[in-house]
Design goal:
This protein has about 230 residues and is an alpha/beta fold. The protein has three domains: about 70 residues, no CATH class; about 50 residues, no CATH class; about 90 residues, Metalloproteases ("zincins"), catalytic domain (Zincin-like), CATH 3.30.2010.10. It is about 40% helix and about 25% strand. The strands form three sheets. It has a four-stranded mixed β-sheet with strand order 1-2-4-3, with helices on one face. Helix 3 crosses helix 4. The chain starts with a strand and ends in a 6-residue tail after the last helix. Bound molecules: zinc ion. Zinc ion binds next to helix 4.
């Protein structure tokens, strides 16, 4: 086994030499490993690595993205929070909102294997769910008082593409991810679904009702562009 590294070139790799083996390159734990027949010269190996450079770099990026979570901050009620993950000798995951907009996620040590990104994603989904459970009654009551109407039922559920939706003419479903927005925006989205209790389509009466009750109507619509609700 030998190690080659070029200072200004990006690719550093380990060579495993073996008998009767074809040459192939793999990425193992974020390291480039070249498996080569024993007789292959280092310049030939270097050449092969150069040739495969694009593939190697894209694989290295993939690995880095999976193992270094790129969720460094999340939004709650429109404010940015930094997420920090710690591993401790505990049994169930804990999530704390700390001062100075810090979110501290503490995970059992055994979770280390699963990969940060996935765990972080699940933890953050759970966090939004918890916030929605705590806050949604007050928000919906406020909207009910503004509009003078409300659905008979609601549920907090993960939705694939919508922030919230109206089911039939009696029930609305709220995606916990809606909690990332400012309260004003959350109220607006909830109100939109409430209005669907009265009007199925975005008819003139629907728009009038929304415009009348939300003076920031167009600003909020702009903020929500790209989102479905
Ligand atoms: Zn609608």
């Amino acid at each position: 086994m030998s190690i080659f590294g070029k200072k200004n070139n990006v690719i550093t790799y380990t060579v495993n030499k073996a008998i009767n083996r074809e040459m192939y390159i793999t990425i193992q734990n974020g390291e480039v490993v070249v498996n080569a027949p024993w007789y292959l010269s280092s310049s030939k190996i270097q050449e092969a690595v150069e040739q495969k450079k694009n593939w190697i770099l894209s694989k290295m990026n993939e690995y880095a993205e999976l193992n270094n979570p790129n969720i460094q901050s999340v939004k709650i009620f429109g404010k940015n929070y930094d997420v920090k993950v710690y591993y401790q000798n505990i049994i169930t995951p804990e999530l704390n909102l700390e001062e100075n907009y810090q979110i501290k996620i503490i995970l059992p040590i055994k979770y280390k294997k699963i990969g940060n990104e996935q765990i972080l994603k699940i933890s953050i989904e759970k966090m939004y769910e918890q916030i929605a459970n705590n806050e949604i009654d007050n928000i919906m009551e406020k909207v009910r008082l503004i509009l003078g109407l409300a659905p008979e039922d609601y549920a907090i559920e993960q939705l694939d593409s919508e922030l919230a939706k109206c089911v039939g003419s009696k029930k609305i479903i709220i995606n916990p991810k809606l909690m990332q927005f400012k309260k004003e925006v959350i109220e607006y989205v909830i109100a939109h679904e409430f209005c669907h209790i009265k009007y199925k389509t975005h008819c003139k009466s629907f728009i009038d009702l929304m415009e009348k009750n939300f003076e920031n109507y167009s600003k909020i619509e702009k903020e929500l562009s790209g989102y479905k609700f």
